[in-house]
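Teaching note: in complex prediction, the entire set of molecules is handled at once rather than each chain in isolation. The prompt given to students was simply: 'Predict the structure of this complex.' The entities are:
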Amino acid sequence: MMSTVLNHRIRGFRTLNIVFAATLLILAVGVNLAKTIAGRERNEIARVEADIGKENQRIRMLEAEVAHLEQPERLERLARGYLAMAPVAARQEASIDTLSDVATRQPGPQAVSTVSVMIP
Amino acid sequence: MSIADLTPQRYPAPWRWIIERVWRVEHAFERAHADGRAENDTRIRIFVVMSLFAVGFVVMSLGAVWSATFAHAGRTGGVVAGAPERADLVDREGRLLAVNLIHYSLSLDLKDVWSRRETKAGLLAALPQLTPAQVDRALAAKKRAFLVGGLTPAERARVHALGLPGIIFEPEERRVYPLGPLAAHFIGYTEKGGVSLAGAERALQADILKAGAEGKPVPLSIDVRVQAALEEEVSAAAAEFHPNGAVGIITNVHTGEILAMTSWPDFDPNFQQRATPDQKLNRAAASVFEMGSTFKAFTVAIGLDTRVATPDSTYDARTPLKMGYRTIHDYHGTNRILTLREVFNHSSNIGTALLAHAIGNAQLAKYFAAFGLTRRAQVELIESARPLTPKKWDDDDIASVSFGHGINVSPLTLAQAMGAILNGGRMVPLTIRRMPVGYRPEGERVVSEQTTLSMLQVMRGNVVEGTGRKADAPGLSVGGKTGTGEKYDPTIRGYSSIKQVGSFAAVFPTDGPVEADRYFVLILMDEPKGGIRTGGWVAAPAVGRTIDRIAPFLGVSRHMTPAYGAPTLIAARAAAPTAVGATPESGL
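The expected output is the structure of the full assembly:
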């Protein structure tokens, strides 16, 4: 049996040698293809990772810039300077429930003296 | 020897089968040789060796295909792309406090520099922070020389635009504090190279590095809006009274979270190397003071908790009290018999010393220890200083300690102990970490809930009709206690009547049940200048203004009483765009 397998030939070549050579070739090509494709994927992933890293850095820079510009002291200074705003005084605070009371305490509309206008 | 010898029947069948196969292979060569088929012997040997190689090759190939196809290509061991070495620090609402940003170091490669004169002129024009001597020194090197570090991307772009050869940039991470001096002592700072030196940066070092690798921020307990309001009021008070230093602290009494903490004078952590040691000193944590009368809150709370006194118990403050070798006087002398409320409102040393005497030395010492007044504040900050306590708790020392003399504690220690009086009686450690919503730690009980409710009323009384009237904020039910401690002056070898520590320890709101949200505010002035240097004068108004500003941020609503006047409608004012003192600012 063993001898038959070892001695079997196709066109003068031992079948076993042909099988081994074919297996070797297929494996070599397969591994090479897999490595090439995976390498390309790996490069692509690394490039995307680098892009994400740069983008994250840019976002962090912008967030820091925003935090710097939104410093409470700076906002207060700008609000006072440009918008003439000031902290709300306690007497200016009212809840929804007390708004009607506030309105009733306000002086009503005053009658305005009418002025006659002569139209020529 | 035969197969039968090798595989006795006592062996299990699979084991016998393996031994037989091995034996057959082992003796195949011998059998072939014995049969006179030497060529078969060689072929079989070659076949066996080739088979082994083939199997090995197939295994390796499959392994290579597996690793090439399914391995975690491009992954970086769980580190997020672009993640900084140190995590961002954010406040309790997620506002950025500290961030690592990429900066650049600039070196000169002298073999590529073709014109030293042009290089020097270009660099000095692009980077105004450089001095000619610095550039000359770098240009005098033989090969490669470091010139400057910490360049921003904009500065790098300016140098790039010069198109000079021989200039090398290398990226480096640098810690940036976008809010500048705001909360500088709380956040702390790092040295060049990322070594943390102070504040949260140092206290939470391990957490910051771990979160940095995961690309997550570390949330701290402070609220930037509350911090800004506190700093502004403390700075305003410091500008008015010119103290040597000042402190402001705001805590949540239930969770122990520090919502704001400031130490004046402050510094910009972005340029910490330019700050003086005095500026860097965190007076809130690392300095200890004789707090003075704010300690009366502890003595009164102990008196109420031990049932030695009630708010209506009376004490004779008509004459100075002789205790041991000293005589105790009242600063705000009333010269009459006072109830305990009045003792507190008028800050009577005599009444407090009498109460302390009634409580007893051992009991008072035990309570002071339970309040944490004899040890450093339990907080993550390593700056937290150990108190200076009396060596012995005799009558004389107890009398002094009862009104805040003869014992030095840090403002943080005071804040922690006050929290135990005001939160229902439990000792809750302070923290600089943001705690989850609804967090209520189960601290060790120090005083009863009833004592807390009584103390809230007593402290409210001090603001309504006592020494802390200037701390009132409309509708916010502020309570508190003034404190004026004389400082020991080595030049006169005694306590100075000029060098004082004025403080106001407040709580708001004092109304509502024990479990209602409640906040502690402390402002302290170290050696304020001026005619009046008491806590009620130099600190209480700043506390009132601070509370007035921060209440909306903390969700504390006003309950206006007629005494404060009813809400009114006020006409809106037009914006005044021309009345501008501010100018648009550049960014980082």
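Point out the following to students. Confidence is low (pLDDT under 50) at residues 574-588 of chain B. Chain B touches chain A through 71 residues (CB under 8 Å).
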